[in-house]
Write a structure and sequence with these properties.
By secondary structure, this protein is mainly beta. The protein has a domain at 121-196 and 234-335. Helices cover 3% and strands 65% of the residues. The chain has two helices and 19 strands. It has helices at 10-13, 330-334, and strands spanning 2-7, 24-36, 42-56, 59-75, 87-105, 108-118, 122-135, 140-155, 159-177, 180-193, 201-209, 213-216, 222-225, 229-237, 243-257, 262-273, 278-289, 295-296, 299-305. It has a 15-stranded antiparallel sheet that branches. Strands 11-14 form a two-stranded antiparallel sheet. The longest helix is centred in the last third of the chain and has 5 residues, at 330-334. The N and C termini lie far apart (56 Å).
Length: 335
Protein backbone atom coordinates (compact mmCIF):
# COMPACT_ATOMS: atom_id res chain seq x y z
CA UNK A 1 0.00 0.00 0.00
CA UNK A 2 1.12 3.55 -0.65
CA UNK A 3 -0.26 6.86 0.56
CA UNK A 4 0.74 10.49 0.26
CA UNK A 5 0.28 12.87 3.19
CA UNK A 6 1.48 16.29 4.24
CA UNK A 7 3.99 16.26 7.07
CA UNK A 8 3.79 18.99 9.72
CA UNK A 9 7.19 18.40 11.32
CA UNK A 10 9.46 20.27 8.95
CA UNK A 11 11.23 22.19 11.68
CA UNK A 12 12.49 18.93 13.22
CA UNK A 13 14.39 18.03 10.04
CA UNK A 14 15.49 21.47 8.85
CA UNK A 15 15.35 23.84 11.83
CA UNK A 16 14.59 27.41 10.94
CA UNK A 17 13.73 26.86 7.27
CA UNK A 18 9.96 26.43 7.57
CA UNK A 19 7.23 26.94 10.12
CA UNK A 20 5.31 24.00 11.54
CA UNK A 21 2.26 24.97 9.51
CA UNK A 22 4.18 24.76 6.22
CA UNK A 23 3.85 21.11 5.29
CA UNK A 24 5.96 19.22 2.79
CA UNK A 25 4.93 15.96 1.07
CA UNK A 26 5.76 12.53 2.34
CA UNK A 27 5.43 9.19 0.53
CA UNK A 28 5.53 5.91 2.36
CA UNK A 29 4.71 2.30 1.64
CA UNK A 30 4.75 -1.13 3.24
CA UNK A 31 5.38 -4.43 1.47
CA UNK A 32 5.36 -8.08 2.50
CA UNK A 33 7.10 -10.94 0.68
CA UNK A 34 6.89 -14.68 1.27
CA UNK A 35 9.28 -17.23 -0.26
CA UNK A 36 8.46 -20.90 0.30
CA UNK A 37 10.12 -24.07 -1.03
CA UNK A 38 8.60 -27.55 -1.09
CA UNK A 39 8.67 -29.70 2.07
CA UNK A 40 9.53 -26.63 4.19
CA UNK A 41 13.05 -26.67 2.73
CA UNK A 42 13.43 -22.89 3.08
CA UNK A 43 10.87 -20.28 4.14
CA UNK A 44 11.60 -16.55 4.12
CA UNK A 45 9.20 -13.84 5.28
CA UNK A 46 10.15 -10.21 4.61
CA UNK A 47 8.61 -6.96 5.82
CA UNK A 48 9.62 -3.58 4.33
CA UNK A 49 8.65 -0.07 5.41
CA UNK A 50 9.80 2.76 3.12
CA UNK A 51 9.39 6.52 3.25
CA UNK A 52 10.45 9.52 1.16
CA UNK A 53 10.35 13.15 2.26
CA UNK A 54 10.77 16.14 -0.07
CA UNK A 55 12.31 18.45 2.52
CA UNK A 56 13.20 21.42 0.31
CA UNK A 57 13.25 22.19 -3.39
CA UNK A 58 15.91 19.81 -4.69
CA UNK A 59 16.47 18.11 -1.33
CA UNK A 60 14.93 14.79 -0.33
CA UNK A 61 15.40 12.10 2.29
CA UNK A 62 14.42 8.46 1.96
CA UNK A 63 14.30 5.76 4.59
CA UNK A 64 13.83 2.00 4.69
CA UNK A 65 13.38 -0.53 7.48
CA UNK A 66 13.42 -4.26 6.81
CA UNK A 67 12.83 -7.41 8.82
CA UNK A 68 13.56 -10.84 7.33
CA UNK A 69 12.82 -14.18 9.00
CA UNK A 70 14.35 -17.34 7.56
CA UNK A 71 13.71 -20.93 8.61
CA UNK A 72 14.21 -24.40 7.16
CA UNK A 73 17.21 -26.58 6.40
CA UNK A 74 20.38 -26.05 4.37
CA UNK A 75 23.00 -28.53 3.07
CA UNK A 76 26.16 -28.51 5.18
CA UNK A 77 28.48 -29.55 2.35
CA UNK A 78 28.87 -33.13 3.57
CA UNK A 79 27.81 -35.80 1.07
CA UNK A 80 24.32 -37.30 1.53
CA UNK A 81 24.01 -40.82 2.87
CA UNK A 82 27.18 -40.65 4.96
CA UNK A 83 27.91 -40.51 8.67
CA UNK A 84 28.18 -36.72 8.71
CA UNK A 85 24.94 -34.66 8.76
CA UNK A 86 23.88 -33.62 5.27
CA UNK A 87 21.36 -30.95 6.36
CA UNK A 88 21.47 -28.40 9.15
CA UNK A 89 18.51 -26.52 10.63
CA UNK A 90 18.44 -22.83 9.76
CA UNK A 91 16.64 -20.15 11.74
CA UNK A 92 17.58 -16.49 11.82
CA UNK A 93 16.19 -12.96 11.83
CA UNK A 94 17.72 -10.01 10.00
CA UNK A 95 16.85 -6.41 10.73
CA UNK A 96 18.17 -3.48 8.77
CA UNK A 97 17.84 0.25 8.37
CA UNK A 98 18.80 2.53 5.49
CA UNK A 99 18.80 6.32 5.18
CA UNK A 100 19.72 8.42 2.15
CA UNK A 101 19.94 12.19 1.65
CA UNK A 102 19.83 13.53 -1.92
CA UNK A 103 20.56 17.04 -3.21
CA UNK A 104 19.95 18.49 -6.67
CA UNK A 105 22.89 20.64 -7.83
CA UNK A 106 22.29 21.95 -11.33
CA UNK A 107 21.79 18.91 -13.54
CA UNK A 108 23.49 16.66 -10.95
CA UNK A 109 21.64 14.75 -8.23
CA UNK A 110 24.05 13.65 -5.52
CA UNK A 111 22.95 11.11 -2.91
CA UNK A 112 24.67 9.81 0.22
CA UNK A 113 23.29 6.54 1.58
CA UNK A 114 24.07 4.89 4.93
CA UNK A 115 22.86 1.40 5.88
CA UNK A 116 23.12 -1.05 8.76
CA UNK A 117 21.86 -4.62 9.08
CA UNK A 118 22.29 -7.22 11.80
CA UNK A 119 21.76 -10.94 12.25
CA UNK A 120 22.74 -13.02 15.26
CA UNK A 121 26.14 -13.77 13.69
CA UNK A 122 26.55 -11.09 10.99
CA UNK A 123 26.75 -7.29 11.02
CA UNK A 124 26.98 -5.17 7.86
CA UNK A 125 27.63 -1.42 7.58
CA UNK A 126 27.24 0.22 4.17
CA UNK A 127 28.16 3.59 2.66
CA UNK A 128 27.18 4.65 -0.88
CA UNK A 129 27.79 7.87 -2.81
CA UNK A 130 25.99 8.33 -6.14
CA UNK A 131 25.87 11.10 -8.75
CA UNK A 132 23.15 11.09 -11.44
CA UNK A 133 23.63 13.57 -14.29
CA UNK A 134 20.67 14.58 -16.51
CA UNK A 135 21.49 15.34 -20.15
CA UNK A 136 19.59 15.85 -23.42
CA UNK A 137 16.65 17.65 -21.77
CA UNK A 138 16.52 14.94 -19.08
CA UNK A 139 16.02 12.19 -21.67
CA UNK A 140 19.45 10.77 -20.86
CA UNK A 141 20.80 10.11 -17.38
CA UNK A 142 24.36 9.08 -16.53
CA UNK A 143 24.93 7.50 -13.12
CA UNK A 144 28.23 6.98 -11.31
CA UNK A 145 28.89 5.81 -7.80
CA UNK A 146 30.91 3.93 -5.22
CA UNK A 147 29.74 1.57 -2.48
CA UNK A 148 31.72 0.34 0.55
CA UNK A 149 30.67 -2.47 2.91
CA UNK A 150 32.33 -3.19 6.25
CA UNK A 151 31.09 -6.55 7.56
CA UNK A 152 31.76 -8.60 10.69
CA UNK A 153 31.17 -12.36 10.65
CA UNK A 154 30.93 -14.38 13.86
CA UNK A 155 32.61 -17.71 13.04
CA UNK A 156 32.10 -20.67 15.40
CA UNK A 157 35.29 -21.39 17.39
CA UNK A 158 37.35 -18.85 15.42
CA UNK A 159 35.51 -15.74 16.71
CA UNK A 160 34.81 -12.53 14.79
CA UNK A 161 36.23 -12.13 11.28
CA UNK A 162 36.15 -9.07 9.04
CA UNK A 163 35.17 -8.65 5.40
CA UNK A 164 35.34 -5.56 3.19
CA UNK A 165 33.80 -4.89 -0.22
CA UNK A 166 34.33 -1.93 -2.56
CA UNK A 167 32.17 -1.52 -5.68
CA UNK A 168 32.43 1.05 -8.47
CA UNK A 169 29.41 1.33 -10.76
CA UNK A 170 28.29 3.36 -13.73
CA UNK A 171 25.35 3.33 -16.08
CA UNK A 172 23.19 5.15 -18.59
CA UNK A 173 19.40 5.43 -18.88
CA UNK A 174 17.72 6.60 -22.09
CA UNK A 175 14.07 7.57 -22.66
CA UNK A 176 12.97 6.37 -26.10
CA UNK A 177 9.41 7.64 -25.88
CA UNK A 178 6.84 8.71 -23.34
CA UNK A 179 6.27 5.08 -22.34
CA UNK A 180 9.64 3.43 -23.04
CA UNK A 181 12.99 3.57 -21.27
CA UNK A 182 16.13 1.45 -21.58
CA UNK A 183 19.20 1.32 -19.36
CA UNK A 184 22.54 -0.40 -18.98
CA UNK A 185 25.11 -0.46 -16.20
CA UNK A 186 28.41 -2.02 -15.19
CA UNK A 187 29.71 -2.82 -11.69
CA UNK A 188 33.29 -3.67 -10.75
CA UNK A 189 33.68 -5.04 -7.25
CA UNK A 190 36.55 -6.15 -5.03
CA UNK A 191 36.24 -8.01 -1.73
CA UNK A 192 38.81 -9.12 0.80
CA UNK A 193 38.85 -10.73 4.22
CA UNK A 194 36.77 -13.65 5.45
CA UNK A 195 34.85 -14.72 2.33
CA UNK A 196 33.83 -18.20 3.49
CA UNK A 197 30.47 -19.47 4.61
CA UNK A 198 31.20 -20.32 8.28
CA UNK A 199 28.62 -23.13 8.26
CA UNK A 200 29.78 -24.96 5.14
CA UNK A 201 32.19 -27.89 5.29
CA UNK A 202 33.86 -30.40 2.97
CA UNK A 203 34.45 -34.03 3.92
CA UNK A 204 37.22 -36.55 3.37
CA UNK A 205 37.36 -40.32 3.94
CA UNK A 206 40.42 -41.03 6.08
CA UNK A 207 42.08 -43.86 7.98
CA UNK A 208 42.58 -43.54 11.73
CA UNK A 209 45.50 -45.67 12.93
CA UNK A 210 45.14 -46.68 16.58
CA UNK A 211 48.40 -47.10 18.55
CA UNK A 212 49.85 -50.42 19.63
CA UNK A 213 48.84 -51.54 23.14
CA UNK A 214 51.27 -53.25 25.55
CA UNK A 215 49.82 -55.42 28.33
CA UNK A 216 51.92 -56.66 31.24
CA UNK A 217 51.60 -60.47 31.30
CA UNK A 218 52.73 -60.59 34.94
CA UNK A 219 55.77 -62.80 34.38
CA UNK A 220 58.10 -60.04 33.28
CA UNK A 221 56.92 -60.10 29.68
CA UNK A 222 54.52 -57.87 27.78
CA UNK A 223 51.89 -58.77 25.25
CA UNK A 224 51.71 -56.32 22.38
CA UNK A 225 48.39 -55.86 20.61
CA UNK A 226 49.02 -54.13 17.30
CA UNK A 227 46.99 -51.09 16.34
CA UNK A 228 44.32 -51.28 13.73
CA UNK A 229 43.24 -49.00 10.90
CA UNK A 230 39.74 -47.59 11.37
CA UNK A 231 37.98 -45.84 8.44
CA UNK A 232 36.51 -42.48 9.44
CA UNK A 233 34.84 -39.57 7.68
CA UNK A 234 36.21 -36.19 8.77
CA UNK A 235 34.92 -32.76 7.84
CA UNK A 236 36.88 -29.53 7.42
CA UNK A 237 35.90 -25.90 7.08
CA UNK A 238 35.81 -24.49 3.59
CA UNK A 239 38.50 -21.90 2.94
CA UNK A 240 38.03 -19.88 -0.21
CA UNK A 241 40.61 -17.36 -1.42
CA UNK A 242 40.51 -14.23 0.75
CA UNK A 243 40.18 -11.84 -2.21
CA UNK A 244 37.64 -11.70 -5.02
CA UNK A 245 37.22 -9.48 -8.09
CA UNK A 246 33.85 -9.54 -9.83
CA UNK A 247 32.17 -7.84 -12.78
CA UNK A 248 28.45 -7.37 -13.37
CA UNK A 249 26.85 -6.25 -16.67
CA UNK A 250 23.14 -5.49 -16.87
CA UNK A 251 20.65 -4.37 -19.55
CA UNK A 252 17.02 -3.46 -18.87
CA UNK A 253 14.06 -2.21 -20.89
CA UNK A 254 10.63 -1.05 -19.70
CA UNK A 255 7.48 -0.20 -21.65
CA UNK A 256 4.15 0.99 -20.30
CA UNK A 257 0.91 -0.11 -22.02
CA UNK A 258 -1.76 2.49 -21.33
CA UNK A 259 -4.87 0.45 -22.16
CA UNK A 260 -4.34 -2.40 -19.66
CA UNK A 261 -2.41 -0.11 -17.31
CA UNK A 262 0.57 -2.45 -17.22
CA UNK A 263 4.34 -2.29 -17.55
CA UNK A 264 6.59 -4.89 -19.17
CA UNK A 265 10.09 -5.13 -17.69
CA UNK A 266 12.81 -7.10 -19.51
CA UNK A 267 16.06 -7.66 -17.64
CA UNK A 268 19.31 -9.42 -18.54
CA UNK A 269 22.40 -9.79 -16.35
CA UNK A 270 25.86 -11.35 -16.81
CA UNK A 271 28.36 -11.77 -13.97
CA UNK A 272 31.91 -13.07 -13.79
CA UNK A 273 34.65 -13.21 -11.15
CA UNK A 274 38.20 -14.44 -10.69
CA UNK A 275 36.93 -17.58 -8.91
CA UNK A 276 35.97 -18.70 -12.42
CA UNK A 277 32.24 -18.29 -11.72
CA UNK A 278 30.05 -17.04 -14.57
CA UNK A 279 26.29 -16.59 -14.30
CA UNK A 280 23.57 -15.53 -16.74
CA UNK A 281 20.10 -14.31 -15.81
CA UNK A 282 17.12 -13.27 -17.95
CA UNK A 283 13.77 -12.11 -16.56
CA UNK A 284 10.38 -11.15 -17.99
CA UNK A 285 8.09 -9.25 -15.60
CA UNK A 286 4.54 -7.94 -16.05
CA UNK A 287 3.39 -5.23 -13.62
CA UNK A 288 -0.40 -4.99 -13.72
CA UNK A 289 -2.15 -2.14 -11.91
CA UNK A 290 -5.21 -3.30 -9.94
CA UNK A 291 -5.96 0.10 -8.44
CA UNK A 292 -4.10 3.12 -7.08
CA UNK A 293 -2.40 1.10 -4.33
CA UNK A 294 -2.13 -2.51 -5.62
CA UNK A 295 -0.08 -4.19 -8.36
CA UNK A 296 -0.03 -7.80 -9.56
CA UNK A 297 3.50 -8.77 -10.71
CA UNK A 298 3.88 -12.20 -12.33
CA UNK A 299 7.35 -12.92 -13.72
CA UNK A 300 9.48 -15.62 -15.32
CA UNK A 301 13.21 -15.88 -14.60
CA UNK A 302 16.00 -17.98 -16.10
CA UNK A 303 19.27 -18.37 -14.20
CA UNK A 304 22.40 -20.43 -14.81
CA UNK A 305 25.71 -20.52 -12.95
CA UNK A 306 28.79 -22.73 -13.19
CA UNK A 307 30.96 -23.88 -10.29
CA UNK A 308 34.11 -22.14 -9.07
CA UNK A 309 37.43 -23.36 -10.49
CA UNK A 310 38.39 -24.78 -7.09
CA UNK A 311 35.05 -26.42 -6.25
CA UNK A 312 35.09 -30.07 -5.15
CA UNK A 313 32.43 -32.31 -3.60
CA UNK A 314 34.96 -33.96 -1.31
CA UNK A 315 38.70 -34.01 -0.59
CA UNK A 316 39.10 -37.72 -1.36
CA UNK A 317 40.87 -37.32 -4.71
CA UNK A 318 43.07 -34.37 -3.75
CA UNK A 319 46.72 -35.10 -3.06
CA UNK A 320 47.10 -33.01 0.07
CA UNK A 321 48.18 -33.47 3.65
CA UNK A 322 45.95 -32.99 6.66
CA UNK A 323 44.09 -29.67 6.31
CA UNK A 324 44.86 -27.05 8.93
CA UNK A 325 42.40 -26.32 11.72
CA UNK A 326 41.09 -23.30 9.85
CA UNK A 327 40.71 -25.21 6.59
CA UNK A 328 42.78 -24.75 3.46
CA UNK A 329 42.60 -22.97 0.15
CA UNK A 330 41.44 -25.37 -2.56
CA UNK A 331 42.78 -23.11 -5.27
CA UNK A 332 46.29 -23.24 -3.85
CA UNK A 333 46.27 -26.95 -3.10
CA UNK A 334 44.65 -28.45 -6.18
CA UNK A 335 47.53 -27.80 -8.50
Amino acid sequence: MKRRHPLLLASLFVPGTRTVAEAFPQDYDYSYQLYQEDDDRIRVQSHYVRAKLDILDGTSFRFQYLNDTISGASPTGALPGGSQPFLADVEDVRTGILGALAQQIGNHRVELELSYSEEHDYISRGYTLTDAVDLNQKNTTLTFGVNYLDDTVEVPILGDKGKESLDFFGGVSQILGKNTVVSGNVTLGYSNGYLNDPYKVVQRDEILHTPDISIDAGDGTFIVIPGVDVPVVNIYRENRPDTRFRQVYQLEGKHYFETPGATVDLLGRLTHDDYGITSEMAQFEWRQELGPHIQLIPFVRYYHQNAADFFVNSLNKLKIGTPADGGFKFQAERG
